[in-house]
Amino acid sequence: MKSLYLLVCVAGGIMGTQCAVAQDFVIRGATVHTASAKGTLKNTDVVVRGGLIVAIGSDAGPGATVIDAKGKELTPGLFGGLTDIGLEEIAAEAQTVDSTLNLKSPEWDQQWRPELDVTLAYNPRSFVVPITRIEGVTWTVLVPSAADSIIGGQGSAVVLDGRYDAALAGSRSLFVQMGATGARVAGGTRAAEYMLLEQAIHEARAPGPIGQGALLHAAGREALTRYLTGGRVVFQVDRAADILGVVTFAERNGMKPVILGGAEAWLVAKELAKANVPVILNPLDDLPLDFDRLASTLENAARLQRAGVRIAFSSGDTPQARLVRQLAGNAVAHGLPWESALAAITSTPADIFGLGATHGRIAVGRSADLVLWSGDPLEVTTLADQVWIGGRPVEMQSRQTELRDRYVEKVKAHQAR
Amino acid sequence: MNMISRIALLSSVACAVSGALASEPFASTYQVPVSSPVLIQGATVLTGTGERLDGADVLIANGRIQAIGKGLAAPGDARVVDAKGKWVTPGLIDIHSHLGVYASPAVKGLDDGNEATAPVTSNVWAEHSVWPQDPGFETALEGGVTTMQILPGSANLIGGRSVVVKNVQGVTYQAMKFPGAVYGLKMACGENPKRVYGEKHQAPSTRMGNVAGYRQAFADAQDYQQQWDKYNRELTEYNKKKAERADGTAKKSKDKDAAADKELVPPSPPKRDLKLETLAEVMKGNIRVHMHCYRSDEMATMLDVADEFGFKIVAFHHAVEAYKIADRLAEKGVCAAMWADWWGFKMEAYDGVQENLAIVDFPERSCAIVHSDSGDGIQRLNQEAAKAMAHGQRAGLTVAPERAIRWLTANPARSLGLQDQIGTLEAGKGADVVIWNGNPFSVYALAEQVFIDGALKFDRAHPPAKPRSDFLLGRHIAEAPL
Predict the structure, then answer these.
(1) B207-249 and B3-18 are packed helices; what angle lies between their axes, rounded to 10 degrees?
(2) Cis before A288 (ω within 30)
(3) How far is B369 from chain A (nearest CA, A)?
(4) Facing residue for B395 by CB, picked from A295, A320, A408
């Protein structure tokens, strides 16, 4: 393990930022949770070459660095959920927040800007990035929002290795705020959300000049049109009736819907399974926090899984994206099979965002985004021993570990006196 | 002593105690329920005193812990719980809850946590905002929480009185109120008060404005107390004189006596000021200060303010930077109530570390507490502790389960001044007990049975047929189509 750290920063990247170089190595003898159909493999080797997983279960041959992982557990790098990592340093300090578009348009003269791609605001130098990745979270999906429109804009998945070009190709999605929250900016009723969406779709499909009272600019028409032929649209929505409404609407308009929130999704689990619509939920949400979420329950995840709905987990919390394992563990405590819980923070979100062929599983040909754990990865007392992203070892340090080290020493020294 | 002077003297004693009324209003109506004895057998018991007993029994009867040990005999009418493989702890205590004052659903009509109309509202009492039908009480119970302190929010420098409740079903908050628990006073450092009032273009808008605000409020309360002290002195004098004359009355003629009585004027009491009355009680040590304070430098400032006015801060809440002054807090005997890992949502939370609890716990005489401030977090206080244990371990600060449980039980009980009644499993203590399906410091742990004063309030094997909250009645009917 020590020798691995020495590899960090031996060669600067082109931009002087990517210190750690991808190495060829073998992680030997771990319990490997593949998050694939192969399930969990005991005492297995994972061979990494050129940043990719090239073999599972067989030795790398001479020359490769060997990492002894006996008694440890290996998972794919975790999905941090839908967050504003790199878009928001401190939520309460507007100067540090780039996640929300606010054109200050009045309700009666809305401008919709689906062409906005919040990925452009991503800052890989954010302190949140190392703080999050040393906990095993290697990627997240950036969520845009708008203060005065139900269309938040577009966002992509980003890999948390510190690179500037962090967006993962093919993951770009459009985000729409529905339900009571959307109704507040749509004119006071959730029915207006559909009214405005219909208007925008008509505009996008209509050739010719942009008329008075239009929601979209030319670039917006072009952007929205891309989502009307099977584009991925993430609808934030909780109430059962609204979930069904969104699914019907999306299908009619050629969108591929993803449900985000879904507090009451279990009530319409059969319909979601039939329509093959995935749900990204927070399995800890069990309080009737508003009248869109009266049916919230800790068993949401388990019930959806039993009905055959694909599920992924997200707290939506940027500084606490690292707690995604705790979401998964609690879902297990409330009836979700362990393998499904791991899938909900690895392979299923990768599939949902079009990254299943490259990310989210320990499988040959996939990016070597890996986490070695001291024990059961879903257990809160387990910590990440080592994280790799694209075969590069992550330096297991952050601003928080430096704060810790400074003051742990202080308290120990004081007590020793 | 005649009847009138007896009454006057009594009222003078009452005034000396509180500057106000002898009997507190809004008294608790909670009664310890009648329940049959329970013998919990063969469990791993974390007593909350720092001990771990394996294969031990816990006997509960008459609302109290009767005995803990191996091979206890069950009284004839006892219900025996086979707890092999299970863990038993004291009921969990959350000293920072807004259940009932920021209830679910979070609608305007139930938004009762912050009287954000003036920076000092020591006249308001959280209990008058508590909605006993908050569904969050029931989910907290399912997480093993048996006692909580409900506080006003942190918009104000001095937000008002807290209330300590038992997590029992009640139509009124008085039915939940912990009998005999002293009040807390919620105060707040830092960003929230200066933001709330700064945005209104009034004081405070800075941290120095905050400190000026606390000091002026307590200076006013000192003045108020002096008025009462003066009144009480005058009243004593008056009563003394009156009694002397009454003694002399028998010897003197009726006419003379009447003339003398006219000269003796009783002092008039100062007008009660509910704001200053509460602060005066704080300075007398009858109300315990719980202070929202993230930054270590601000905690140090507040310890000095408390010294200046002669009151004690029992606990800093949201003490995200407590780890920077762990020694000082331990030396001063001040508790720090913390989250395991919240950080970064505002500037004063930027220095959060996951080792905070373990570091604060490390010095001798420390008092580390896990708190929630959240309807979600209160359901999983055990997991918060578990995360902090893991991070402490990695930093070389090992905390055993028998010690970590004190973060959720004995230490919060101490901060509430209820350490003689709850927080540990010891013979004679109130029988607030949780039976867990395994080691509680695990993400998979669930509370199976929760007892409050010996009565089984939650049984996971036999969940209640109907929700405890009136608000949730009818939900299952609405969820089922015809």
Answers:
(1) 160
(2) no
(3) 18
(4) A408
Tell me the CATH number at B99.
3.20.20.140
Q: Tell me, what's the pLDDT at A239?
A: 98
B459 belongs to a structural domain:
no
For residue B285, being part of any structural domain is answered with yes
Domain count of the fold of chain B: 1
Contact A239, A130 (CB under 8 A): no
Whole-structure pTM value: 0.94
Residue ranges covered by each domain of chain A: 1-77+360-417, 78-359
Residues 6+ apart with CB under 8 A from B233: none
Residue ranges in A286-398 assigned as alpha helix (H): 300-306, 324-333, 338-343, 347-352
Domain A1-77+360-417, CATH: 2.30.40.10
Cβ within 8 Å of B, A 245-274? 267
Asked, colleague to colleague, whether A1-77+360-417 and A78-359 share their fold, the answer is no
Would B171 be classed as within a structural domain?
Answer: yes
Phi, psi dihedrals of residue B423, rounded to the nearest 5° = 105, -15
B220-257 tens-digit pLDDT: 999 999 999 999 999 999 999 999 998 876 555 555 55
- Could you tell me the two tokens for B358? 């373990």
Nearest neighbour of A319 by CB, restricted to B343, B444, B475 = B343
Residues of chain B contacting residue A287, judged by C-beta atoms under 8 Å apart: 104, 135-136, 139, 375-376
ipTM for the assembly: 0.94
Nearest to B443 among A320, A322, A380 (CB): A380
CATH number at A78-359: 3.20.20.140
pLDDT tens-digit series, residues B143-161: 999 999 999 999 999 999 9
A330 and B CB contact within 8 Å: yes
CB contact under 8 A, A290 and B390: no
Put simply, whether A95 touches B (Cβ < 8 Å) is no
